[in-house]
Design goal:
It contains ten helices and nine strands. By secondary structure, the chain is an alpha/beta fold. Helix 6 links the parallel strand 6 and strand 7.
């Protein structure tokens, strides 16, 4: 399947963006090791697997000379901010489909509001980009993640919002098993079926799906303390919505010997969402 995915990727245009991220050791104990893949370092605004999805999406959008984009997503979506920034950079008009913003604005909602105020354009012919950039043009980029890592882990832990990143990743793994930590109620089976059709490949083995949050649930005290610990002791900034939860789940299970051998934990970026949490940070040092 890896070779077929590589052939699919090779048939697509890509934006000339960096699509390789490094991996380093994070935790070690008598049960095994956890390595972290620094997808957060791919880019500042469009960090993590979004950068990969957007690399093929925007190359296709330019090639197809799309008149513009309608970008779907929540008010606080990391993906919407990143898409808007790339569309603006590339001169592609866009309209945000996010719900009306309520005051006082903060975090990504503030960035989205500042951006979309300047985008009043007619949009009848615009291409709609679903939440999470889950568009067929994003698939080639999404598949590059699995080919940018060694397929020799006992388990790979990936967080999921819509689940597109995890679904695409499952097609490129032959030896490693995939654990998907669901921050929102994603339908991985349906996404995997769509991707299998697009690639004309059989369905890969299903990943182990574990719900870690309902998406809207507030970030708890334990998660904040863990967030602070990872910043203080490892110099890693986590996104409180996604990666703080996936790292905490991984640490707890690793400490209890539930993740034996070699684990790869994906840091899926999302640093922009930190803009919305200044008050919580102040509490962490008071
Ligand atoms: C930091 C971070 N991690 C994970 C995801 C979820 O990715 P996916 O929708 O492909 O599951 C997002 C979505 O934007 C994100 O911002």
């Amino acid at each position: 399947m890896r070779e077929s995915c590589q052939r699919f990727i090779d048939r697509h245009p890509f934006m000339p963006w960096p699509l390789r991220s490094r991996t380093h050791l994070l935790w070690k104990n008598s049960y095994g090791e956890v390595w972290v893949k620094r997808e957060d370092e791919l880019s500042f605004i469009s960090s993590g697997p979004k950068r990969r999805k957007h690399a093929s999406f925007f190359a296709m959008a330019l090639e197809m000379k799309v008149p513009g984009l309608k970008i779907a997503g929540s008010l606080f979506s990391n993906n919407s901010v990143a898409m808007a920034a790339s569309a603006r950079e590339l001169g592609i008009p866009f309209e945000m489909l996010s719900p009306k913003a309520k005051s006082p604005l903060k975090g990504n909602a503030l960035l989205n509001a500042m951006m979309s105020q300047t985008a009043a354009v007619p949009s009848d012919t615009f291409v709609t980009v679903p939440e999470g950039a889950n568009h067929p043009w994003s698939l080639a980029g999404a598949l590059t993640l699995g080919l940018d890592l060694e397929d020799d882990y006992d388990q790979i832990v990936c967080d999921a919002g819509t689940g597109y990143t995890a679904a695409a990743l499952s097609f490129t793994l032959e030896r490693s098993s995939l654990i998907t930590l669901k921050v929102a109620p994603a339908d991985l089976h349906l996404l995997t079926k769509d991707i299998s059709k697009q690639l004309n490949l059989p369905m890969p083995p299903p990943s182990r799906e574990i719900p870690v949050s309902s998406g809207l649930s507030p970030i708890g005290k334990r998660e904040w303390l863990f967030f602070k610990d990872i910043w203080q002791n490892h110099g890693l900034l986590l996104d409180p919505i996604y990666t703080a939860r996936s790292f905490l789940w991984t640490k707890q299970n690793f400490d209890q010997g539930q993740l034996p051998g070699k684990t790869l934990l994906l840091h899926t970026g999302g640093g922009l969402s930190l803009l919305g949490f200044e008050e919580e940070f102040k509490k962490l040092i008071s």
